[in-house]
Design a protein that fits this description.
With 457 residues, the chain is an alpha+beta fold. Helix content is 30%, strand content 21%.
Length: 457
């Protein structure tokens, strides 16, 4: 694939390469984009010698040379292409446009926009117009009503992932306003706060018969998130398909989509409304409601096509650090894969996701079945090429990298979507660290059901 409006190739990262210009152009572009280091202008993979060193330099240059802060708006990962190690930079469209080189300020010399396959200087009148429209209610700018905040829980979560918070972490993680006061991001992540997330359960199909009302909060938003995930995991009961040959278990809601929906609702909630997301369980469905509409510059079509404009970039960055978010813009495609566009509802002030429950029904042949996107049987997934080969390969514990290499696949995100998620959903694969699905130490191997399919006892 050649360069286009969302793809830029660079042969190598040098001090002379103006990588900031390319990143700024994508930050200011409504669809964001991708920059590949180690690929020439013809799309031929050349490779990067020092991948780790190159990635550190990129992060440092983005952090110090671009304003407003782009932290939380980009991902930098290593990929394999044609046997070479390359670097992929995913850049989201920013919500605080215009972005510019700190050195030159909001001028055509420092502000760029993606036009076709190049980064072009932005005209001054467009710069002024974007600045006038810039969102003023960013939680990074809102001063916390409490300044006596502690962050021991946040330190623990970072320590668990081998990341130490130094004495300057409040500034590094953007928990302070420009004048050095704790902002609303800090308030949400503090050990004690007034934010609480509700998980309600009803025995009726409307909201008349409330049987359970749980609150998770008044603590770090990360801790509250983990509590909500744990509660919904308990509620995600398994139903079964019983055939003459086997028993197939299916949860009420797709586990991958459920996790992504919970994280998205919490990370992208508009906390300037001072309304947290809520989770409501009905006998026939789960409803997840978050405050805030789609960003003005993002259409529904772009949203469903995977275009990402993080509302709270500070939260996004921290949730990626503690591995609650795997990669930028990955959540919505996973939800759509399981439930389709019809599960989303947009209003002027809220976004709601509805997951119908998988309910057992009696088939004509007397078997019981639960709806599922993948029918598991002796033929396995007939529409997915070579999946039997992958299943046999996973008799032993395998990393995603090993699986990619074995299947001769290069795109990690597409591989997870095409192979790993269906196998997890079908109960054929399991994780070594299910409590940390995004852990770097994660490995996948066959469940007893998976072993039974291939005849291994």
């Amino acid at each position: 694939m050649g360069e286009n409006n969302r793809i830029e190739y660079k042969r190598e990262l040098t001090s002379e390469l103006d990588i900031e210009k390319e990143i700024i152009a994508f930050l200011n572009y409504k669809e964001g984009g991708y920059i590949y280091i180690g690929i020439d202008e013809n799309g031929v993979a050349i490779g990067v010698d020092d991948v780790d060193g190159c990635m550190l330099k990129l992060k440092d240059r983005i952090k110090h040379n671009i304003s407003p802060s782009a932290m939380g708006l980009f991902d930098i990962v290593e990929e394999k292409r044609e046997g070479h190690s390359i670097i992929k930079i995913t850049v989201a469209s920013g919500i605080e446009k215009p972005y510019f080189k700190t050195k030159y300020g909001m001028t055509p010399r420092g502000t760029y926009l993606r036009v076709g396959t190049s980064a072009e200087p932005m005209p001054q009148d467009q710069i002024d117009r974007l600045f006038a429209m810039r969102t003023r209610n960013s939680i990074g700018r809102i001063v916390s009503n409490r300044q006596d905040l502690n962050f021991e829980q946040l330190r623990i979560y970072y320590d668990e992932h081998g990341k130490r918070l130094n004495d300057n972490f409040k500034r590094t993680l953007e928990l302070l306003t420009e004048d050095g006061k704790h902002n609303y991001v800090a308030y949400l992540l503090a050990d004690e706060n007034g934010n609480s997330i509700k998980v309600a359960k009803y025995s009726s199909l409307d909201r008349c018969d409330l049987v359970e009302n749980n609150e998770y909060g008044y603590c770090s938003l990360i801790k509250a998130t983990k509590s909500v995930l744990a509660k919904l995991d308990i509620e995600n009961k398994v139903t079964a398909t019983i055939t003459p040959m086997e028993r197939i278990e299916t949860p009420l809601w797709n586990k991958v989509a459920l996790r992504e929906a919970v994280i998205n609702a919490i990370v992208h909630n508009d906390y300037s409304f001072e309304v947290p997301p809520k989770f409501e369980i009905f006998p026939d469905r789960l409803e997840i409601t978050s405050a805030g509409r789609l960003p003005e510059s993002l259409s529904r079509e772009e949203f469903f096509n995977g275009i990402s404009i993080p509302r709270n970039k500070e939260l996004m960055r921290i949730y990626r650090d503690v591995e609650l978010v795997e990669s930028l813009g990955s959540g919505i495609p996973r939800i759509l894969h399981a439930y389709g566009e019809e599960c989303f509802m947009f209003t002027d002030n809220f976004i709601r996701i509805t997951f119908p429950a998988n309910v057992c029904v009696n088939d004509h042949d007397g078997t019981k079945s639960a709806p599922s996107r993948h029918q598991v049987g002796t033929k396995l997934f007939p529409d997915i090429e070579n999946i039997d080969k992958l299943i046999v390969f996973c008799i032993e514990k395998r990393s995603v990298t090993e699986m990619l290499s074995f299947m001769n696949f290069s795109d990690r995100t597409k591989f997870r979507k095409k192979f790993i998620y269906p196998l997890l959903e079908a109960g054929i694969l399991q994780m070594t660290h299910p409590e940390k699905p995004n852990s770097n130490a994660q490995r996948y191997f066959l469940t007893p059901y998976g072993l039974n399919i291939i005849g291994e006892k």
